[in-house]
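Morning. Coffee machine broken again, so started the prediction first thing and wrote up yesterday's gels while waiting. Chain of 487 residues, entered below exactly as on the submission form.
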Amino acid sequence: MRSVFQVVATMVLANAAVAYGADAKSAISAAKKGANATVEDAKAKAADVAKGAQTQATEVKATATDAAKDTTKQANASQPAATPATTPASEVKEAAKEAMASQPQDKSELAGARKSSIIPESAVLPESVLRFRAIYGAASSKKGYDANANKIENGIKVTANRAVAVLEYGITERISGQLLMPYSLGGKVTVDDKTKLIETSIRGPVTAAVDAGLAPAIAALGAAYTANASSPADIVLSATLTVPKNTPIKTYLDGVRAALIEKNIAAQYEAAKTTAESVKFQEGLGDIEIGAKYSISTVKEPVIAGVPFYASAGVGVRLNTGKFVDAAKDGKRAAGRGTTDLGIRLNADYEATDGIQLQVENQTELMLAKGKTYVGGKEVDYARDGMRQVGYTKLVIAPGAWIPAADVVLLNARYNWDNDAQTKTDGTANVGTATVGRSAQFGLGFDGLKLKLPVQLDYDYVLAARSRNVGTALDANVVTLKLFYKF
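Came back before lunch.
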């Protein structure tokens, strides 16, 4: 173990060693290592060095440059550093005091300190650290869910693309701020399955219409239709429908019915396809969000000492910047939600063991200010009645806790929920608009921070699950790039 004198000598001479490049780094490194000497060792060595300094004071003026070279050379060769005679006893005593002050006075000072391979979601950024997140999501859907959570597949496919830029900054050790700016890249609707579209939304109405048109003629024929009898003469049923003579009446009319259904389906399909594919998506800036998060506890300072449970609380505002009313005028799917909302977020994380962490997040949203939509040729009020609950529960696994070669890899699986509030147009509730969304999510992450690279990269696959009142339940591929910068 190095003496306190060696610590002080290295610290005093470090400035002179700067001119020697790599030598300076070694001197500084030696200084840092020496500074961790135990209190007991510091006291003992300080006394010994003080005695030696009294008899060798004349050598105190040795040049800083020579001493720095000496220190570096000896450190590299794992040999004892410079002799005790090169520093006055007064400086040694001061070093001893500093060494004592640097040591924990009680093991309780380390309470809560815990090795962790996973950064809790409740954690805030370190002070003066900036994080930029670039998120890209490509979503698609062939299904939806009705009010009873029954899956609906009508042969229509929806695809949409979205990007999000997020800036986060560590204001203090406990508080970080965030600015989120989403951008809609548009989307489109196509007919993915013609047969399914016909069977789910066209055949039923067309069949009902044809049957209603034939019903009077069939009723007039009565028993002749039921018995599938023939007539020796033509039977004129309408200006466009005549049963030929000597032709089984039921067989003929059933054939007419089938032909009429297929003919009308063909016409209805083209109309339905045109209507579906005419749906457009608003492109451009969505609703900007501004917020802050406060760390209630950290890995070093948990709520309960020794219990790896961490939490944070956040508050934010979503601004109505998505031009919702313009989208309504153009008949497009809006890039925003149409209202100004307040959000209160809570995060809680529990680390079962190093490498396994359970995370829970829930955000409660309440409308602060209503917006406008476009109905019947005029702008009317658009509002949300009640609270929205959106969040997830997530299991994060760091294989590097057991497999060193996988130290930069993170795996996660999570369950998402989104219980939205009901919308109101011009003061009237829009029944059936209170959606209940559910999805599963699986992710793989690369943590460059463990390689001392200021970058992280995540990939997540989102799979829509059983929901209610969700016309388009989107599956998605999401890529997130995170960059860090320390001011």
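DSSP finds nine helices and 23 strands in the chain. Going to sketch it on the whiteboard this afternoon.
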